[in-house]
Write a structure and sequence with these properties.
This protein has seven helices and 23 strands. By secondary structure, it is α/β, with parallel strands linked by helices. Helix 2 (16-31) packs antiparallel against helix 4, helix 5 (373-381) packs across helix 6 (386-403) and helix 6 packs antiparallel against helix 7 (411-423).
């Protein structure tokens, strides 16, 4: 790992506080071992295939150097945005902010330009460290810090587009979202590579969301990396008293793409909703690890992740609902369902509950299997060709999750992206699977 040494981290440009943060993180990374599939948190993963020596830290991009036509396999419909931010390989290159929004006290800044470290940087992520968080912090070039003051309602979404280019480049984008008391906002974050064959890249993003008391945050993350990209992402949130976080993920790209989603419900009456749509084909692997962590009483969480795999693709879902002793009167549910569309594809689903309170309502369910033969027979008996019947079942499978995306206007683009995946499928039948829960 000669490209990711403490000396390399210290040589990166930036303010003094960022240099010191990198130094400390680089030392932690140097003393940490990379994970292996023998660890429960990395069970079923392909982490043993990662060769960090293939990559080098990205150089800082110049302001305004926006790629002309970054690829976007996930579609992503244009939106009327309150603010648009573009980053290239983890460096903020453009912030286009509505003047009226700034007048309300909303700020969107590049953390690399700040004289002092933002108070909320690391408040969420540092409580859940691993080797890749240390690597991220050691080679952080910049990041987006979004702050919405108390009582402010941001009607249009704030859009952050992370673009990645170059072969053998490692990038470490950071986004920090902070909502004050009784504030409301929506954030759309997109991760896209420069074309379908933009070289082999490693992307290690971290997104932190601090939702103040009685605040409301809607978040949608779209991952559309090229087929050679490895992405290992962390999204962690802190949800305050009587506040609501609706977070969602769409994952269609990448070679190996891992997303760790964690919500800490720290205030009484806090609510978290997590939904995800994922579709892997060819030799892709999509890997999800979730945590619904209830600390305060009268908290609520609901999770629905749905995915499909075909060709030789694989998916993993492993989730934990944790109810701490202080979280009485909690409601929590966790559901993961997977369609296996080809003989060579596979999906793993591992839901877990850890309950330390005695007055709670919790449920979990998972299913892995092929298209239901009864559904297929019913549609074919009504005169539909088999391929049309299969397409309708797959689209119907995803529809309830698509309908729950917290940002409107993206649904048709997502349906089109799912259609492209389905139409690009390889040959193969529908194996008999299993169902649990």
């Amino acid at each position: 790992m000669s490209n990711f040494t403490p000396e390399t981290a210290r040589a990166l440009p930036g303010p003094g506080w960022l240099t010191e943060r990198r130094r400390a993180a680089a030392e932690r990374f140097a003393s940490a071992a990379l994970p292996t599939p023998s660890e429960e948190a990395w069970r079923y993963s392909r982490i043993e295939e990662l060769d960090l020596d293939r990559y080098r830290p990205s150089e800082r991009a110049a302001p305004g150097s926006i790629p002309a036509n970054p690829g976007d396999a996930a579609g992503g419909a244009p939106v009327a945005a309150a603010t648009r931010v573009v980053t290239v390989n983890g460096t903020v290159v453009s912030i286009d902010m509505d003047d009226g929004l700034a007048a309300k006290g909303v700020t969107v800044t590049d953390l690399a330009t700040l004289a002092e470290a933002p108070e909320e940087l690391g408040r969420c992520a540092d409580a859940s460290p691993d080797a890749f968080l240390h690597l991220h912090d050691a080679f952080l070039q910049g990041g987006v810090v979004i702050t919405v003051p108390a009582g402010v309602f941001v009607e249009a979404p704030i859009v952050v587009k992370h673009c990645f280019e170059g072969d053998g480049v490692a990038s470490f984008p950071r986004t920090v979202v902070v909502l004050g008391e009784d504030a409301e906002a929506s954030v759309l974050e997109r991760f896209v590579s420069s074309g379908s064959s933009g070289g082999s890249q490693l992307v290690v993003p971290v997104t932190e969301m601090v939702v103040g008391d009685a605040a409301r945050l809607n978040y949608l993350g779209l991952q559309a990396q090229n087929p050679s990209t490895w992405q290992i992402a962390l999204q962690r949130s802190l949800v305050g008293k009587q506040s609501t976080l609706r977070s969602s993920a769409v994952a269609l790209g990448g070679d190996y793409a891992r997303l760790r989603v964690e919500a800490l419900l720290d205030g009484e009456g806090a609510s978290s909703e997590m939904v995800a749509v994922y579709f892997a084909n060819e030799t892709q692997m999509l890997d999800f690890r979730t945590l619904q962590d209830h600390v305060a009483p009268h908290t609520n969480s609901d999770l629905l992740f749905k995915g499909a795999v075909e060709d030789r693709a694989r998916s993993v879902y492993s989730g934990l609902v944790r109810i701490r002793p202080t979280a009485q009167r909690t409601n929590a549910s966790q559901t993961n369902r997977n369609l296996v569309l080809s003989e060579g594809a596979s999906a793993e689903s591992i839901p877990n509950l850890e309950i330390e309170a005695n007055d709670v309502r919790c449920s979990h369910a998972s299913a892995v299997g092929p298209i239901d033969e009864d559904q297929l027979y019913y549609l074919e008996s009504r005169g539909l060709p088999p391929d049309v019947a299969e397409r309708l079942i797959v689209f119907g499978f995803f529809e309830d999750v698509i309908a729950r995306l917290p940002l409107t206007g993206q649904e048709e683009a997502l349906r089109a992206a799912v259609a492209r995946k389905f139409e690009a499928r390889g040959a193969g039948g529908f194996p008999h699977g299993d169902s649990r829960g």
